[in-house]
Amino acid sequence: MLPKVDLHTHTIASGHAFGTVNENVMEAAAKGLEVIGISDHGPAVPGAPNIVYFSCLGFLPRTLHGVTVLRGVEANIFHDGSIDLDERQLERLDYVMAGLHGEAGYAGATANDHTRAIIAAMGNPRIRIITHPGNPRFPAHLEELARAAADTGTALELNNSSLTCARPGSSPRCHELARLCARFGAPVAIGSDAHIPQAVGVLDAALEMALEAGLSWEQIVTRDRDAIFDFLRITP
Ligand SMILES: [Zn+2]
Ligand SMILES: [Zn+2]
What domains, with CATH codes, occur in the chain? Predict the structure, then answer.
């Protein structure tokens, strides 16, 4: 059984991904997903869309090719835990994910910096998912992240691309984080981080790691449509 929701997909709007919204959604339909999220990078990533793009996501239909389409963003966390979109853009979105990215204005340098920045971001109730928190480029203290995620109800992501084609060296840290999330009861999101349409809904490596680490199916907030609507407090 695979999750029926993939909230982490990029389109050509991100400036370094290769599919359109329509192509991503067609792939989601072909893979049998119930829900896809469009989550292009926030404006601090070079080549990413400007703030007007995020204000216009309301043009996306609610259902396309039989798949529910959610409007989101993968925002950039800064040193103090703030992100690169303000409340006017955020309130129009169905969900906000945020993560640490290089070349996107993040100035932290140490494990303490990364940990503080991510935990400060978790204190923002708009931010519901932290993307690729196991990234070895920004090695945060994993137990502190898992505890904070459980306390705030923010999901930590197990990113399938981190285990296959991006952020080399992620596997051991992601496995440790999954184990800690299981121990502390933190919510977990599984995302493809697709940068091409064919990668949409490819979640098998992350799911296998999640289950192997002892996470329960009920801890995975992206397991199906009802679960993600409940987690994001979206009324169907
Ligand atoms: Zn990212
Ligand atoms: Zn991404």
Answer: 5-232 (3.20.20.140)
